[in-house]
């Protein structure tokens, strides 16, 4: 092989390697950008959930929302943030009420009930609310305090369950 062909093949190899290196760097930057976007989305979602949780908890304490409905909504939001949160003693009532109210219809299924069936379900819902009234209020107060603490500490991208269990006695 002549020297000229070897130089051209070496130059072509260097160009291919440079192109591949540029492409790899571009892909790596895209991965980092997407990871940052994903982290920002998690932070935004957690912040929105904490805002909603605090509003619902405050409405429960103020008697502005049905206690069972508030408990069901809190349970869903707590599960979105971290399913381990309902293991915290002060928040277990939300899981308990959700389990007790699991048979009750919601949304369109409730709307489709006859007035008599709806009345029966309302009575069952009220019985659950009466049974857990004190626990639900204490749970709502603890949740409101916890949400306020999370907001003050700005911990929307961290392990909420660990922070909940490490927080002062609630």
Explain this structure.
- The longest helix is centred in the N-terminal third of the chain and has 59 residues, at 3-61.
- By secondary structure, the protein is mainly α.
- The protein is 78% helix and 0% strand.
- The N and C termini lie far apart (81 Å).
- The chain has one domain.
- α1 (3-61) packs antiparallel against α2 and α1 packs across α6.
- It is elongated and about 95 Å long.
Helix fraction by DSSP (H/I, runs of at least 4): over 70%
Question: How many beta-strand elements?
Answer: 0
What radius of gyration results from the CA coordinates?
27 Å
Average the pLDDT over all residues and give the rounded result.
Answer: 90
**DSSP helix count?**
7
User: Please, how many domains?
Assistant: 1
The largest sheet is: none
Instruction: Spell out the helices and strands N to C.
Output: HHHHHHH
Oligomer: single chain
Spatial shape: elongated
| Gap between N and C termini | 81 Å
Low-confidence stretches: none
Helix-strand makeup class:
mainly alpha
Beta-strand content bin: under 5%
Write the layout of secondary structure elements.
Blueprint: H1 3-61, H2 67-81, H3 92-100, H4 107-111, H5 115-131, H6 133-153, H7 160-166
Short description:
Helices cover 78% and strands 0% of the residues. The chain has seven helices and no strands.
Keywords:
mainly alpha, about 170 residues, elongated
């Amino acid at each position: 092989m002549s020297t000229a062909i070897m130089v051209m093949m070496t130059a072509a190899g260097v160009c291919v390697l440079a192109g591949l290196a540029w492409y790899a760097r571009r892909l790596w930057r895209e991965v980092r950008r997407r990871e940052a976007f994903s982290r920002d989305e998690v932070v935004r979602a957690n912040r929105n959930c904490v805002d909603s949780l605090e509003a619902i908890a405050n409405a429960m304490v103020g008697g502005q929302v049905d206690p069972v409905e508030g408990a069901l909504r809190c349970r869903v939001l707590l599960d979105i943030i971290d399913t381990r949160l309902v293991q915290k003693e002060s928040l277990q009532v939300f899981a308990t009420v959700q389990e007790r109210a699991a048979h009750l219809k919601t949304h369109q299924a409730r709307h489709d009930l006859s007035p008599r069936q709806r009345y029966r379900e309302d009575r069952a819902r009220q019985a659950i609310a009466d049974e857990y009234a004190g626990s639900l209020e204490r749970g709502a107060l603890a949740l409101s305090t916890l949400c306020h603490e999370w907001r003050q500490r700005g911990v929307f991208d961290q392990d909420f369950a660990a922070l909940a269990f490490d927080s002062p006695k609630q």
